[in-house]
Specification:
Blueprint: E1 18-19, E2 35-37, E3 40-49, E4 68-72, E5 85-87, E6 103-113, E7 124-129, E8 132-133, E9 135-140, E10 143-149, E11 155-158, E12 168-175, E13 184-185, E14 188-190, E15 193-194, E16 198-203, E17 211-218, E18 223-230, E19 235-238, E20 243-246, E21 251-254, E22 266-272, E23 275-281, E24 286-289, E25 292-295, E26 298-299, E27 302-306, H1 320-332, E28 337-339, H2 347-356, E29 359-363, E30 367-368, H3 387-401, E31 407-411, H4 420-432, E32 438-439, E33 452-455, H5 459-466, H6 474-477, E34 481-486, H7 497-506, E35 510-515, E36 523-525, E37 529-531, H8 559-567, E38 571-576, E39 581-586, E40 596-604, E41 607-613, E42 624-628, E43 641-649, E44 661-670, E45 684-686, E46 689-692, E47 695-698, E48 704-707, E49 710-718, H9 725-728, H10 738-745, E50 751-759, E51 764-771, E52 778-787, E53 792-801, E54 810-818, E55 822-829, E56 842-849, E57 866-874, E58 877-890, H11 894-899, E59 911-920, E60 943-951
Parallel strand pairs: 13-30, 27-28, 27-35, 28-29, 29-31, 31-32, 33-34, 34-35
Antiparallel strand pairs: 1-10, 2-16, 3-4, 3-6, 5-14, 6-12, 7-11, 7-16, 8-15, 9-10, 9-12, 17-18, 18-21, 19-20, 19-22, 22-23, 24-25, 25-26, 36-37, 38-39, 39-42, 40-41, 40-43, 43-44, 45-46, 46-47, 47-48, 48-49, 49-54, 50-51, 51-52, 52-53, 53-60, 54-59, 55-56, 55-57, 57-58, 58-59, 58-60
């Protein structure tokens, strides 16, 4: 006898998008119809499999009093039930579509609610879920409503006939894995749960259904044309424009257009017999003309970011305040565009983009990247059985978001290969909305798309594309080009942003790009600070590849965001400082400079001695003007002098306060005079010490012991830095991964051989050879110490020996100080900088503590260097360099920094380790992009540099 059992959860592996849901429609935040939020505390039960429990929990009166509670919106794995999983593209389950593992964490959710006393008696009602991962089955008062997949998309059910005045029981069973999971392999944490809003909407008789706001703009006439197509007939009014028309009726009136720089919105109302829906209307036209993306007749340059939704404690359950914080940070850092990687965001985020002004590429909830491991065999996007699910996802995105003026491009998804399903999606979207171009990076021949898009193309290839030398189909060569992902912002970096931006601004076809990505997806953790892949015991994970953003998990801007702000600033300030002239160029696409005020300041040795307003005309986009600076006052002989010119908000705006710095430039006038120390003091040997001016040295080894009574520990040549994520690179990158090569060569374990200690009438000279074990490479290093009695000068001469096939991580000296805390310096600041990420470094006088010099990358790595330092003071010493140097100081060694996996692994010691570097290797973005460009390599070649030490105070 045989027994065959059928799982009670067949819907989990069904490739259809679901059943029982209403057709998708446009989303709006509010209306005069009643609504009830069902967010809050829900009863919760977790099961190990999809069919571990029957459906009885959905019946009214079921006893769930001993269940746990979770917050909705939320993810149960972030609320103490199970654990999150991170993979970049590998599916965390066997690939056998549409099947998923028997071990399938399933969360039963219960919410009992009463209708408000003023809930209307008539009409119908709709239950809306804005986001559930990954598959949900829903009951109300014991009646099954249906089930759905499509985690980042809205789903609605008709429920009016099932509602009771009191004691309504809403039951939702959520499965972590489903056939839909194969379509959602999106380089993020796998986080099951009801993570967006749940809302009950009253639908009175004659309520608004779906509607489509068409609001175009004719840049030649300055007129806008409005027509609102509505499923339910009604009237549209826009009082400011004197518009009162029937739905479906077009009207043309003079308007101010909407752009990301000038986000002009008109308040209107769609009134149907049963509902009044507020409208926020932006008039704009997107077109592909002359091989370019144009808005209102003008080509646009995207200065964008990719944005996953993230909060370090709530995951993808974002509130309005967090979304607003993202938008304000973007605007204040000159970001003008967002790609919603890799799914439609919470709809309220698009309202904010409309209001504050951001171009949006709205991306469908689709990625099947894991199939690349089997050469895209069985990829759902090329399997007709999955096409209904793909079309459902496309429709739910387009219908929900079609009325947002900020959405200027639809994206079919990300890294899903190619296939018939994508073609079907493209055809459906074009048929529904022909007013926006289509994007999909994976369509390399642009069969289904309107934009040639790439990710992480190297600079030289981007330039070839800009020059039209890229090859490919004729259709593709006539298309505009964007980098939908570039400048991978993982850890320290990205480097090379300015080099990309110069290309974007040099070739019309290159219409900008979107940095990967906005935020580190670190999960707040009591022991680790922020956790990343592998910290929750995942059997498959991709480590800290999930922490690759321009802001840290707590939304503090990283140095990368500060650098990006400078690189993309919309006003260029350059000129001839010595000649007293500044050239101001408006790099906006649409806005003139009337909203900005300009100011000048004059610095002497890094300190501002005079300042004032600078009259600059309200230049139109693309215009430049030469502006004369005032006559500066006299400066001391030998002083370094220069101008700083800033463009500020003249008045407060919706996104920034009055005085917010939008752009700046520095114009040198007189360079500094290099420090000079006469070798007038003779070394004296006594009691095992060599005394030279303010310093004492070990007579046997030549090691510096004290300067002016300040103890100095272990001063020696240093070439090692704790490799950055970009130093280590990614396994799939074609160019050399120098972080790995440095370690293989042994640069982290250099030996210092003492060859000679020479004492002459004017100098102490120490000759050494610095080299790693097991190879014949080395660095002949000579330390020559001289003094004028008050100051101590060190001249370091380095001569490479052997065939150095790799650049050096750094080249300079390292030493330890006890008791150092406060730091002041004259040079680049206030934040860190490296050779290819130094545009935001402002020359001036700066102060900090040693602790505040550190940059808290989620995975510890080289950080905190200040560029172009003339002198620095800390721990009782003043150090001046010739030439200017890179300066860093920390309470742990580079070796300890290298060994740390999390910030909490770094334990401050009693010694502050100081690096004074003649050179640093560039950063690049090789964690998923090009490494440092050749001009930023620190080649092993002969070098001489010097430092002057003296006691400070």
């Amino acid at each position: 006898m045989s027994v065959r059992t059928t799982p009670a959860a067949d819907h989990v592996e069904d490739v259809s998008p679901g059943r029982g849901t209403l057709p998708p429609r446009s989303w709006y935040a509010s209306s005069d119809a009643a609504s009830l939020s069902l967010n809050g505390r829900w009863r919760f039960r977790l099961s190990a499999t999809a069919d571990a429990e029957d459906d009885s929990f959905a019946e009214p009166g079921y006893g769930a009093g001993d269940w746990a509670e979770v917050t909705v919106p939320g993810h149960w794995v972030l609320q103490g039930h199970g654990a999150p999983v991170y993979t970049n593209h590998l599916y965390p389950f066997p690939v056998d579509p549409p099947h998923v593992p028997t071990e399938n964490p399933t969360g039963d959710h219960l919410r009992v609610f009463d209708l408000p006393a003023d809930w209307p008696a008539g009409g119908d009602a709709v239950l809306r879920f804005d986001g559930v991962e990954s598959c949900a089955r829903v009951w109300l008062n014991g009646t099954e409503l249906g089930e759905f997949k499509g985690s980042r998309l809205p789903h609605e059910f008709t429920v009016g006939g099932l509602l009771k005045t009191v004691g309504n029981v809403l039951a939702v069973r959520v499965h972590q894995w489903s056939s839909g999971s194969y379509l959602e392999d999106q380089d993020q944490w796998w986080l099951p749960g009801i993570f967006r809003d749940v809302t009950l909407l009253h639908r009175p008789a004659g309520a608004a259904g779906d509607f489509f706001v068409h609001a175009s703009y004719d840049h030649a006439t300055g007129a806008g044309t409005l027509c609102v197509d509505s499923e339910v007939a009604g009237r549209v009014t826009v009082p400011e424009l004197g518009v009162d028309i029937a739905t479906g009726e077009p009207v043309t009136v003079p308007v101010e257009p909407w752009t990301a720089e000038t986000p002009r919105l008109y308040d209107g109302v769609l009134a149907t017999p049963g509902e009044r829906v507020p409208l926020r209307i932006g008039f704009r036209t997107v077109a592909l003309e002359d091989g370019l993306i144009k808005v209102n007749g003008t080509p646009v340059l995207f200065k964008g970011v990719n944005r996953h939704e993230w909060h370090p404690e709530r995951g993808r359950a974002l509130d309005l305040a967090t979304m607003r914080e993202d938008v304000l940070l973007m605007k204040r850092h000159n970001v003008n565009a967002v790609r919603t990687s890799h799914y439609p965001p919470h709809p309220a985020f698009l309202d904010l983009c409309d209001e504050y002004g951001l171009w949006v590429i709205d991306e469908c909830d689709l990625e099947t990247h894991g199939f690349v491991e089997q050469s895209w065999r069985d990829n759902p996007v090329d399997d007709d059985r999955w096409t209904p699910a793909l079309l459902d996802r496309a429709a739910r995105m387009v219908e929900r978001d079609k009325n947002h003026p900020s959405v200027v491009i639809w994206s079919l998804g990300n890294e899903a290969g190619t296939g018939r399903g994508l073609t079907a999606m493209a055809e459906w979207i074009r048929g529904r909305d022909g007013s926006r171009p289509l994007h999909y990076e994976g369509d390399i021949d642009c069969r289904d798309t309107d934009v040639y898009s790439r990710m992480y193309a190297f600079h030289d290839e981007v330039e070839r594309i800009g020059r039209g030398l890229d090859g490919g189909t004729l259709k593709r060569r006539d298309m505009p080009f964007i980098l939908c992902e570039y400048a991978h912002a993982m850890g320290n970096g990205p480097g090379g942003l300015a080099d990309y931006q110069r290309l974007f601004e040099s070739y019309d076809r290159l219409q900008g790009g979107f940095v990967w990505e906005w935020i580190d997806h670190g999960i707040a953790h009591p022991e680790l600070g922020f956790a990343y892949g592998g910290d929750f015991g995942e059997e498959l994970h991709d480590g800290n590849f999930v922490c690759d953003g321009l802001v840290f998990p707590d939304r503090r801007p990283s140095p990368g965001l500060v650098e990006f702000k400078k690189v993309i600033e919309p006003v260029r300030i350059e000129g001839d400082g010595a000649g007293g002239t500044v050239r101001v160029t408006n790099r906006h696409d649409f806005a003139d400079l009337s909203a900005l005020a300009f100011e000048w300041s004059y610095q002497v040795d890094g300190e501002t001695v005079d300042a004032g307003p600078l009259p600059v005309p309200a230049l139109a986009p693309g215009e430049s003007a030469e502006v004369k600076l005032p006559q500066p006052g006299p400066a001391p002989a030998g002083a370094e002098t220069g101008w700083t010119v800033r463009a500020l908000l003249a008045e407060a705006t919706a996104w920034g306060p009055k005085g917010h710095v939008v752009a700046w430039g520095q114009l040198p006038v007189m360079n500094r005079v290099a420090p000079s120390v006469a070798a007038s003091e003779r070394p004296a040997v006594s009691g095992g010490l060599v005394r030279l001016g303010p310093a004492a040295f070990d007579a046997r080894t030549g090691a510096l012991r004290t300067v002016g009574g300040v103890d100095v520990t272990d001063l020696r040549l240093d070439v090692w830095r704790a490799p950055t994520d970009n130093d280590n690179g990614a396994p799939w990158q074609p160019d050399a991964r120098y972080g790995l090569l440095w370690r293989e060569l042994g640069l982290h374990r250099m030996r210092h051989r003492l060859d000679a200690v020479d004492v002459t009438d004017e100098a102490l000279t120490v000759r050494t050879r610095v080299a790693p074990a097991a190879v014949d490479l080395g660095l002949r290093t000579v330390y020559r110490w001289t003094s004028d009695g008050r100051r101590l000068k060190l001249t370091v001469s380095v001569t490479p020996e052997g065939d150095w096939a790799v650049p050096l991580p750094r080249l300079g000296i390292r030493f330890g100080l006890a008791g150092a805390d406060e730091v002041s310096w004259f040079g680049g600041g206030p934040g860190e900088a490296y050779p290819d990420s130094r545009m935001a470094s402002t020359i001036g006088r700066w102060r900090s503590t040693v602790d505040d010099l550190q940059t808290p990358y989620v995975r510890p790595q080289e950080n905190g260097a200040r560029a172009d330092v003339r002198w620095a003071e800390l721990g009782g010493l003043r150090v001046e360099g010739d030439p200017a140097f890179w300066f860093s100081a920390r309470r742990w060694t580079s070796e300890q920094l290298d060994a740390a996996g999390h910030l909490t692994d770094l334990v401050p010691g009693d010694t502050v380790w100081v690096n004074l570097d003649h050179g640093q290797m560039g950063i690049g973005s090789q964690s998923c992009g090009p490494g440092a460009l050749p001009q930023y390599h620190l080649r092993a070649e002969p070098a001489t540099f010097s430092f002057v030490f003296e006691a400070n105070g």
